[in-house]
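2024-03-11 09:14:02 DEBUG pipeline.ingest accepted 1 chain
2024-03-11 09:14:02 DEBUG pipeline.ingest length=59
2024-03-11 09:14:03 DEBUG pipeline.predict start
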Amino acid sequence: MYYTDRGIEELENRRGEEEVSFAWLAEQLRVFTDVNPEFETPVERLATWLARLDDEDEE
């Protein structure tokens, strides 16, 4: 189990029944990055990955 799995499990347990929009998620990622600028690169990578989930494999 990766260390981040604990945070993901907590998110699922606490808020797993909620529905949110991608606009809401994008705003939360912006706020998180403003408060924690050292995480700008990982947040950018996550956002890009989520945005491209439906793209065909480029391999």
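2024-03-11 09:14:41 DEBUG pipeline.report Residues 22-35 form the longest helix (14 residues).
2024-03-11 09:14:41 DEBUG pipeline.predict end
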